[in-house]
Every structure is written in structure tokens, then in C-alpha cells.
Design brief:
heterodimer, A: about 270 residues, alpha/beta, Rossmann fold, six-stranded mixed sheet, three-stranded antiparallel sheet, 10 helices, 12 strands, about 30% helix, globular, B: about 120 residues, mainly alpha, Arc Repressor Mutant, subunit A, 2 domains, about 60% helix, about 5% strand
Chain lengths: ~270, ~120
């Protein structure tokens, strides 16, 4: 659904944020986009939805260049940015003004999401706390029922109960066709939602694999340091990432995976090949 | 709200959840169970992960799929689950407990006494 080829982007001519990104993100999956601060995750999401153009390389969404902002594509694409400014109106009024751009928008669904996340659609968005405003926008964005949904740090600012409500609502939003991309540092908030992991580093895409592929090849948790490709100390003793030779799966630990890829991406890539 | 523990993969925890509901009688044999999408939304887990659990439950003859209708609890699922869990207990949990008993110098007499009491 989303095809990115040799994409490069720089905000200024002498420094690139994204370099040589080649990646495809299919429908029917929830993709987790991970990477250190400043690596270009948010920039990549903005390029995918046509808010910015790549310096070099190409992006195609359903075969269409999103920077052309074709109406039929824009109707199928929604981004929830990490930070946003909304007009000083209620969510209901905001939806009345904006929803006509999204043919699949459902007011009933927005009301349901608002109820679940305890947001009052009649309250002025400017009077809400940061977390409430984020939930209000999530409710609106999901009610637009677009095939492509891009979320940038969606759990930032959400209180503890809202995080699990958010997980349930997003798991219910996913279907065989929709392509959902979540960029985050808060991996523990959302790891049960993801079935495909993409890690970006300075040189491009350091890893792109399904969680099933990762767990069939790699073991996470207590490991024999001699066999491990990565270890760190924890309260439980040495934990890390090792080749999975047991034939059984361990629980994917995204923090360990991320640290392992950061420390030695070649070894991880070899094991996943 | 479901809390996922460390160690076991999530698909396995969903597998266990379904088994628990069958053992407790909440889901009876030959009755339809919740769809993959419903369960995914209920516990906040990726639907593909839940599908993986259902596929494994199907290949273990605990549930079966009626195309276009949904998943049903198989005939004899309850005794089948008990048999699987019994085997796992005897081959994995019990040997681990015995190793720990040896480590802590727990004698067979102590164990027998407790076993009779409980």
C-alpha cells in the first residue's frame, strides 16, 4: 500500500534527515516505526501523507504520489501528529467543519470513541488539557475511517487508563485492508498492537520484519552470554537477544530489540535473513 | 483489562485465555466463540496475533472453523485441553519444581505431607 524507494530528505541542503529509505508498508497490518530522536520518523510520516516532498527518491501510496494531494487519496489518509493546534471550537463543531472531506466519517463512531475515552465532544477544544485534546483528535481521526492512519506518538500525554482504552480502540479499528503506522518511543504502551516492526537509523532502514518473523529467529529474555548477540544487565540478571534455537517463541521485547539493532544491526539483519 | 505478562509471547497468552474460558465452562463445546476481531478489540491486541492463536487452537483440535460463520469449540475440547496441560505440567513445570526442591533441600517427606494436606 505504501511504497518508499530510496527516499532522501533534508530540511537544509547540507544535512539530510532521512537517507536512502526503501520500505514498503502493507495494508492489513499495524506497523511500529521506531528510531532515536531526530532520526526522521515524524518527517517520514509527513512525507507519506503529502505534507512534504522528498528531496530525492519516491513515495507511492496505492501507486499515487501523495505530494500531488489527489483528493481521492487524501480522503483515505489521516495523520495524528504529535503536536497540533486546533481552532477554539468544540470537537462537534470541528467535526462538522472538517468531516465533509472524509466520505467514510461516522458521527456515531466519534461519539462512541469519545465515550470510551471520556471526552466531551461539546467542550471547547481550547479548554481541554493536552491529553484530553489529544484523545478528542484521536476520536475524530479514527471516526474518519480512512484506509491509511498515521499516528505520531499517540500515547504521549494520555493518562494510564486511556492508554489501554486506546489500545482496544485501535485494535478494533484494524482490519484486513487498513494500513496503520505508529511512530513511538513508548514501546511498552503499544507493543501488543504491532505486527510489523520498522527501525530507522542514520543509514536508513535498520530493520523491517513482522513480529512473527522476529520471534521465530530471535530469542528475548534470559540468555547465555556466549550465544547472545546482545546483552544488558537487569534486575533479573543478564538479559538479551540470542538466536532462537528452541523452536518456541519468547515474548518480543521491543526495547531489547531496539538496543540490539542500535548496537549491532548487521548481526540482527543476518539472523533475520 | 488483560495484562500481558513477560516471557510468554502474546499469541500464546491469548491461546491460554481461550483454553481458560473453555475449562471454566464460559464457552461450551459446539458453541460459537467470539470472532478474531472482537477478541482483538476486547484485549487490545493486533488481530493478526489473535488469528495466530486461533490457528494454533484449530491445529490442536480445540476449536474449529466453519467457513463464513466463525470459530466453534470442538467436541471434547475440555478433556483435550486438560490432557495437553497435564502433559505440559509433567514435562515442564514439575521437573522445574523438582529442581528447585533439590536446590532448597526440600525432602520428599516434607513434600508428601503438604501434598496430603492440600
Amino acid at each position: 500500500m505504501i511504497d518508499i524507494k530510496q527516499l532522501t530528505f533534508g530540511y537544509s541542503s547540507h544535512r539530510n534527515v532521512l537517507t536512502d529509505i526503501t520500505l514498503s508498508l502493507d495494508g492489513g497490518h499495524i506497523h511500529g516505526l521506531l528510531g532515536c530522536n531526530g532520526i526522521g520518523k515524524s518527517t517520514l510520516l509527513k512525507i507519506i501523507c503529502g505534507l512534504m516532498r522528498p528531496t530525492a527518491g519516491s513515495v507511492r501510496v496505492d501507486g499515487v504520489d501523495p505530494s500531488t494531494r489527489r483528493v481521492d487519496l487524501m480522503q483515505q489518509m489521516m495523520i495524528i501528529p504529535e503536536e497540533f493546534s486546533l481552532p477554539s471550537v468544540s470537537l462537534s463543531s470541528y467535526a462538522r467543519m472538517t468531516a465533509p472531506f472524509y466520505p467514510q466519517f461516522s458521527r456515531e463512531q466519534m461519539d462512541y470513541y469519545c465515550r470510551e475515552m471520556m471526552v466531551d465532544p461539546a467542550e471547547k477544544l481550547h479548554n481541554m488539557s493536552m491529553g484530553q485534546r489529544k484523545k478528542a483528535y484521536i476520536a475524530f481521526a479514527m471516526a474518519c475511517n480512512t484506509r491509511i492512519l498515521l499516528l505520531d506518538e499517540p500515547t504521549n500525554g494520555l493518562d494510564i487508563p486511556s492508554k489501554s482504552v486506546f489500545r482496544r480502540l485501535l485494535a478494533g479499528y484494524a482490519d484486513d485492508d487498513r494500513c496503520i503506522v505508529i511512530s513511538t518511543h513508548q514501546v511498552n504502551d503499544i507493543d501488543s498492537l504491532l505486527d510489523n516492526i520498522v527501525i530507522l537509523d542514520q543509514t536508513g532502514v535498520a530493520l523491517s520484519a513482522t513480529t512473527a518473523e522476529i520471534c521465530s529467529r530471535l530469542w528475548f529474555g534470559a540468555v547465555d552470554p556466549a550465544a547472545a548477540v546482545y546483552t544488558e544487565r537487569s534486575v533479573l540478571g543478564q538479559i538479551g537477544v540470542a538466536p532462537n534455537t528452541s523452536g518456541e517463541d519468547s515474548r518480543l521485547d521491543l526495547e531489547l530489540l531496539f538496543n540490539a539493532v542500535t548496537a549491532d544491526r548487521e548481526s540482527i539483519a543476518r539472523l533475520l535473513k | 483489562m488483560m495484562e500481558f505478562s513477560e516471557g510468554k509471547p502474546i499469541w500464546r497468552q491469548i491461546y491460554d485465555l481461550v483454553c481458560t474460558r473453555i475449562l471454566s465452562g464460559e464457552w461450551t463445546e459446539q458453541s460459537r466463540i467470539v470472532s478474531v476481531r472482537e477478541l482483538a478489540a476486547d484485549v487490545g491486541v493486533n488481530p493478526n496475533t489473535v488469528m495466530r492463536s486461533y490457528e494454533r487452537l484449530e491445529s490442536d483440535n480445540i476449536i474449529y472453523n466453519r467457513r463464513g460463520i466463525g470459530f466453534f469449540v470442538a467436541e471434547g475440547a475440555k478433556s483435550h485441553i486438560l490432557e495437553i496441560e497435564r502433559r505440559e505440567f509433567l514435562t515442564e513445570e514439575l521437573p522445574a519444581t523438582i529442581r528447585r526442591m533439590r536446590l532448597l533441600n526440600v525432602t520428599l517427606d516434607e513434600f508428601t505431607m503438604l501434598f496430603r494436606e492440600k
